[in-house]
Amino acid sequence: MSSRILMIFGKKVIVVMPAYNAEKTLDRTLAEVDRTIVDDIILVDDCSRDGTSERARELGLHVVRHEKNRGYGGNQKTCYREALARGADIVIMLHPDYQYTPKLVPVMAHMVGSGLYDVVMASRILGGTALQGGMPLYKYIANRILTGFQNLCMGLKLSEYHTGYRAFSKQVLQELPLESNDDDFIFDNQMIVQAALAGYRFGEVSCPTKYFEEASSINFRRSVKYGLGCVANSLLMLVARNGIYTAGFLRGLTRAKIPSES
After folding, report:
1. Is 46 exposed, middle or buried (0-12, 13-18, 19+ CB in 10 A)?
2. Mean pLDDT for each consecutive 10-residue tract of the chain (262 residues)?
3. SS3 state of residue 209
């Protein structure tokens, strides 16, 4: 890592990479990370069958390896715990499969570091390039339908809820009850619902993506399961907003919890 770090608003920026069999794409991903603004990179290897951990160590990353696969959500829980333990002020989750462009890391870090946003999402939908980048048509249609439904239930106006490229302030990660979330892919959506109910501020940036053989993607069956989970989460958010019922993973959160700094 470069010894010359350009501090963003005096805050420590840490990139976390939830990894599973990412040995083939890790070098390409890291080559586009601006190491002059990133203080630390943490890779959490979820019991990969390839040489992901070994290659990450060779590249100078801080590596944590799960000896048993804990799922995508379980991987993220470790990512965020490690980032906070290492003093992060801004945490950016970047998949090491090179599907999302790492060149947006500085932009996302500045958006959070400015104090204007608590959560920043890199949207594949903004800019209209998702299909050109190879997103399957059924996933694109499902994305648009689910996003519209979730905006209605949650009172937000996001272009996409389903991107895996996100930036968070330290306060968000410290205050959300992330350990109560699922260990599977639905963790991503539960986290957004929690942040929305807690009143955190969302920002978005347009992000071109690439779909190719080595890039990770869930199959149709798991996509359906994820989609149904998103619908359920949105309805739980709706009833919680109206004071009718608060599900376990949403308890203790209020719309008034706006942090004083990001």
Report:
1. buried
2. 70 97 96 96 98 98 98 98 98 96 97 97 87 83 94 95 96 96 96 96 93 65 90 94 90 63 43
3. strand
Q: Which residues of 123-161 are buried (b: 16+ CB within 10 A; e: fewer)?
A: bbbbeeebeeeebeeebeebbeebbebbeebbeeebbbb
For 71, 126, 216, 218, 247, the CA distances from 19, given in Å and listed in that order, are 10, 26, 10, 14, 30
**Domains detected in the chain:** 13-250 (3.90.550.10)
Confirm if 56 and 33 have CB atoms less than 8 A apart: no
Cβ count within 10 A of residue 102: 22
What would the pLDDT profile of 83-119 be if each residue is shown by its tens digit?
A: 999 999 999 999 999 999 999 999 999 999 999 999 9
Overall pTM > 0.85: yes
Instruction: State whether residue 204 is helix, strand or coil.
Output: strand
Mutual angle of helices 220-241 and 187-197, in 10-degree steps: 20
Distance CA 67, CA 211 (A): 28
Check if the beta carbon of residue 59 is closer than 8 Å to that of residue 41: no
Phi-psi region of 214 (alpha: psi -120 to 50; beta: other; left: phi over 0): alpha
Strand-pair partners of 62 = 42
* 8 Å CB contact between 3 and 82: no
Q: Which of 162, 153, 169, 173 is nearest to 82 (CA)?
A: 173
Residue with tokens 């160590």: 57
Q: How crowded is the C-beta side of 182, counted as CA atoms within 13 Å? A: 15
